[in-house]
Design brief:
The protein has four helices and 13 strands. It is an alpha/beta fold. Strands 6-3-2-1-7-10-12-13 form an eight-stranded mixed sheet. A three-stranded mixed sheet has the order 9-8-11, with helices on one face. A two-stranded antiparallel ribbon has the order 4-5.
Length: 196
């Protein structure tokens, strides 16, 4: 029953994401970026520190603008690669991707760093910006079904966890299992929901 509910929810959100116009996405991503940077300033993140974040695909809540703003502030960044059912993060720089050699389609066609072109990030308390299908008012996250982020946080539990989402992705309640990892806050174009 839970699995069926999760599948239905994933399909529903996928349809809603496909329906986002380029203009809406641009506007929402600009608002997301502003909200994210405001939260970052309140968290006292300093130049030289590192943030782990995803590269958005298929109309996910956008991270590209955030990435550029982090580089402008001297904040280091790392993006994930799915490797043998585990997530491993690799540091990227402002020149990343300019030659086209540092990124390749990986798991589910998501752009991933090429190991030989990047350094492995090993910052056990770095902020992690998390993608997801849906989130709820208790901080639970419905992912894409691979369990990568749940396993990553079980392995490295000290990371703060911030999710990015559009408004329609945040619900009162979603199906959750005992191993599901909760978020510390969810940032949307319309504001922020915090759990700590």
């Amino acid at each position: 029953m839970e699995r069926m509910r999760k599948t239905e929810l994933r399909n529903k959100i996928a349809r809603l994401r496909l329906g986002i116009s380029p203009g809406e996405k641009r506007e929402w991503d600009e608002k997301l970026c502003r909200e994210f940077l405001q939260q970052l300033e309140q968290s006292a993140t300093q130049p030289g520190q590192m943030i782990y974040l995803y590269l958005d695909v298929r109309n996910e809540a956008g991270t590209r603008q955030i990435l550029v703003e982090l580089w402008r502030r001297g904040i280091r960044t790392a993006v994930p690669k799915a490797s043998q059912r585990e997530l491993v993060f690799y540091e990227i720089t402002p020149f990343f991707g300019s030659s086209g050699e540092e990124l390749r389609p990986g798991y589910m066609g998501i752009p991933e760093p090429v190991e030989e072109a990047c350094s492995r990030a090993e910052e056990p308390e770095a902020l992690v910006v998390v993608p997801g299908v849906a989130f709820d008012q208790q901080g639970f996250r419905l992912g894409y079904g691979g369990g990568f982020y749940d396993r990553f946080f079980a392995r490295e539990p000290k990371h703060p966890r911030w999710a990015l989402a559009y408004g329609f992705q945040v619900m009162d309640e979603i199906p959750a299992e005992e191993w599901d990892q909760r978020m510390d806050k969810i940032i949307t174009p319309g504001g922020v929901v915090s759990y700590h």
